[in-house]
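Researcher: Next entry in the queue.
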Amino acid sequence: MTEPPAPASVDLDLQERPRIVQTGLSLHGARATESACVHGLWCLHAYHYQGKLAVKGLTHSFHAGWVSLIPPEVVAEWHFPSHAAHHYVHFAVAASGQPPVRLPLLQDLGGDFDPFCAQLEQMIRYHPQDPLRAAVRLWDLLQQLRREPAALPAKSPLHTSVQKALAIFRNQPDESLKVSQIAGSMSVSHNHLTRIFKKFCGCGVKQYLQRERLAHARELLAHSSLGIKSIAIETGIPDLHYFNKLIR
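Model: Structure for this entry, 248 residues:
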């Protein structure tokens, strides 16, 4: 099996507080590929799906739980699944004259991805009314990316099997996804995976994933500009009547 090329690095000046120009949660997938080149602005993305990113002639694969940091004036091309959501921040940095910090173009945050996104969502909420506070939060998030992912602030760690199951679920957030399919992808039995979830999460796999879907839907309804239909599709519950019933 051919290994993907190692992610490149970027040099970012972190001496001065960044200035946020645009931020939010974006949903793609209507087109299989899209490209962008942003003038004067850096782009931070936190991915909730599996896809590919092509930069400077190299194509990198990524999964849910990865983040990317793309410099200004760089052409980037994304290859999307049918429904692809990511948090994004477009920001400017002032030149300080000090040596820049080298950061990965792409990195896997693993189990630290959820707390990272929770801080991103706070920053998105702050930005309209308190842009200075939002900028300070972004500055801290960028500083976090300097360290190993394990050094990022994290919630109580989930069992490895639970983390793997959630990664599979997030890459295919379709309500038709069966517990047996998730277990098969992990090379464990349905019963074993169910026991793990009941022991560490207090409920079965199906119940836990339903809670994940609804929590994600409530967050999108409260803090994004996406329409209800798009949110229903994004959370894997495309039947609007059933989606509304669950939310109520």
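Model: The domain at 160-247 is CATH 1.10.10.60 (Arc Repressor Mutant, subunit A).
Researcher: Noted, moving on.
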